[in-house]
Design goal:
Distance between the termini: 61 Å
Number of strands: 13
Largest sheet: 5 strands, parallel
Number of domains: 2
Oligomer: single chain
Shape: globular
CATH superfamily of the largest domain: Tetrapyrrole methylase, C-terminal domain
Radius of gyration: 20 Å
Order of helices and strands: EHEHEHEHEHEEHEHEEHEEE
CATH class of the largest domain: Alpha Beta
CATH topology of the largest domain: Methyltransferase, Cobalt-precorrin-4 Transmethylase, Domain 2
């Protein structure tokens, strides 16, 4: 186990992006390189395995986020710790729970949140430009948010008729939340609305599907927990080249001011 120098103790909460080395930021690499200890979910640690050599590694599992937060704060009192979070730590990531626990504990720990590429922007880049203007991100996971509250937020989001990025769309434990979300979308948007599904963005097994709102509601078997779904807004349209659908474009409004 590496020796620790508590004169330089610090806690980094590091976003590692969607999972490929190319999408890991330079700031994240520097934080990981300078850490004595790296702690995180086993799934995310596997994505940065090459950067963990010579470090103390503490592996955890889903559902142990509070314990992980307490542990990294305790460690950060005496060494440099990097808490790993998938995507961006401030977007459905570890930053909030770590900062909540830290504030509650009253401990004095130097903290730096290191941003990362979040799933919505990673998926959007693979689909073209579906989130160019105003948009909403919502998680369909009801582990921490009641289903009734998710439904309320979905109605509000789709009423605005802007693109909506759906995180955590489906899992074995909640296979029907995506269907609920698409049913709500269909109340406010036509079935022909463009929809994009990206599985494993920038990771092995990456898949991109461009379809319509109604078609995805009819068959959502292409969606799993490793997917992100983007439902277009009222101005979104299919991006076509040479007769082939390449993705989705949501215009920012230049066409209303300029000729091109």
């Amino acid at each position: 186990m590496p020796s620790h120098d508590n004169t330089r103790a610090k806690l980094y909460i590091v976003g590692i992006g969607p999972g490929s080395p190319e999408t890991l930021t330079g700031q994240a690499r520097r934080a990981l390189a300078g850490a004595d200890c790296i702690i995180g979910n086993t799934f995310y640690l596997a994505q940065i395995e090459d950067l963990c050599a010579g470090k103390e590694i503490i592996r955890s599992t889903m559902g142990r986020e509070v314990d992980r937060a307490k542990q990294c704060i305790d460690l950060a009192k005496r060494c440099v710790v990097a808490m790993v979070s998938g995507g961006d730590p401030g977007v459905y990531g570890m930053a909030s729970i770590v900062l909540e626990v830290l504030a509650q504990s009253g401990a004095e720990v130097e903290v730096e949140v290191v941003p990362g590429v979040t799933a919505a922007t990673a998926a959007a880049s693979l689909l073209g430009s579906p989130l160019s203007g105003d948009h909403v991100t919502l998680s369909l996971s009801d582990l921490l948010t009641p289903r009734e509250e998710i439904e309320r937020r979905l109605h509000l989001a789709f009423q605005m008729k802007v693109p909506v990025a759906l995180y955590n769309p489906k899992s074995r434990g909640r296979p029907h939340n995506l269907a609920m979300a698409l049913d709500i979308a269909l109340v406010h948007l036509p079935g022909s609305t463009p929809v994009g599904v990206v599985q494993n963005a920038f990771r092995e097994g990456e898949k991109r599907i461009v379809t319509t709102l109604q078609a995805l509601r009819d068959d959502d078997s292409c969606v799993d927990m490793r997917s992100l779904v983007i439902v277009g807004g009222e101005e979104s349209r299919f991006w076509e080249m040479n007769g082939d659908v390449r993705g989705i474009i949501t215009p920012r409004g230049y066409h209303r001011k300029y000729v091109y």
